[in-house]
């Protein structure tokens, strides 16, 4: 939803995080797994767990200022290697990696640092990588009205590397392309060449 105003403010939704309840539940969870929390070093662990997850599920609010594209810049704008830290919603274990986010400007452009904030905004919640990739692309498309959007995320999932198949070092690559970057083969291959991802 583009509006006439150049300034959009994105606030985190009110999650109603109840830290005390989360701390009690974390203590119960650890005891149920046979982990004693009686020792001095573990006594504060349920509280630290609750705070850590609350932090990971709370994106920082940010202002998204867009500018009119007065110069008519129509080449790809790409931010590479944006850090991604999220938590897989199936195991509640972290997945980490990088995002490459690009767009072909239409009427409006965006401060470059904001591309990283958009990634963070959608990463700070229980996620699956495929949805995160699509949400970043869809949000940019809605807010900027660009000619095209491309998002690639490469991430290592600790639920794959620390347990289960223990596929250490394996990364998962997801991509979402919209507009010209989806439809035009030359734009698409230019985008993937600049991200360094072989597609
Ligand atoms: Zn998982």
Automatic annotation (TrEMBL):
Oligomer status and interactors: Homopolymer.
Gene Ontology molecular functions: GTP binding; GTP cyclohydrolase I activity; zinc ion binding
Similarity-based family: Belongs to the GTP cyclohydrolase I family.
GTP cyclohydrolase I domain span: 23-194
Enzyme nomenclature, EC number: 3.5.4.16
Pfam families in alphabetical order: GTP_cyclohydroI
HAMAP family per UniProt: FolE (MF_00223)
Pathway, per record: Cofactor biosynthesis; 7,8-dihydroneopterin triphosphate biosynthesis; 7,8-dihydroneopterin triphosphate from GTP: step 1/1
Stored Gene3D superfamilies: 1.10.286.10, 3.30.1130.10
InterPro entries according to UniProt: GTP-CH-I_C/QueF (IPR043133), GTP-CH-I_N (IPR043134), GTP_CycHdrlase_I (IPR001474), GTP_CycHdrlase_I_CS (IPR018234), GTP_CycHdrlase_I_dom (IPR020602)
A GO CC term attached to the entry: cytoplasm
Matching NCBIfam families: folE (TIGR00063), PRK09347.1-2 (NF006825), PRK09347.1-3 (NF006826)
Originating organism: Amycolatopsis saalfeldensis
Catalytically driven reaction(s): GTP + H2O = 7,8-dihydroneopterin 3'-triphosphate + formate + H(+)
Name under which the protein is recorded: GTP cyclohydrolase 1
Binding site for Zn(2+): 88, 91, 159
Alphabetical UniProt keywords: GTP-binding, Hydrolase, Metal-binding, Nucleotide-binding, One-carbon metabolism, Zinc
One of the GO biological process terms: tetrahydrobiopterin biosynthetic process
């Amino acid at each position: 939803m583009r509006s006439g105003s150049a300034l959009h403010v994105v606030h985190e939704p009110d999650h109603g995080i109840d830290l005390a309840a989360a701390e009690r539940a974390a203590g119960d969870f650890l005891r149920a797994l046979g982990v004693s929390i009686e020792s001095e070093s573990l006594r504060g662990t349920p509280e630290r767990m609750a705070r850590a997850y609350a932090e990971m599920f709370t994106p920082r609010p940010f202002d998204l200022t867009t500018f009119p594209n007065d110069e008519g810049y129509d080449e790809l704008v790409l931010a590479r290697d944006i850090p991604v830290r999220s938590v897989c919603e199936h195991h509640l274990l972290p997945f980490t990696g990088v995002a490459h986010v690009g767009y072909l400007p239409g009427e409006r452009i965006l401060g470059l640092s904001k591309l990283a904030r958009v990634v963070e905004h959608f990463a700070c919640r229980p996620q699956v990588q495929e949805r995160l990739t699509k949400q970043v692309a869809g949000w940019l498309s809605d807010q900027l009205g660009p000619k095209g959007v491309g998002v690639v995320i490469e991430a290592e999932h600790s639920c794959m590397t620390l347990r289960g198949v223990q596929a250490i070092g394996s990364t998962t690559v997801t991509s979402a392309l919209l507009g010209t970057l989806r439809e035009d083969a030359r734009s698409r291959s230019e985008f993937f060449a600049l991200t360094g991802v072989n597609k």
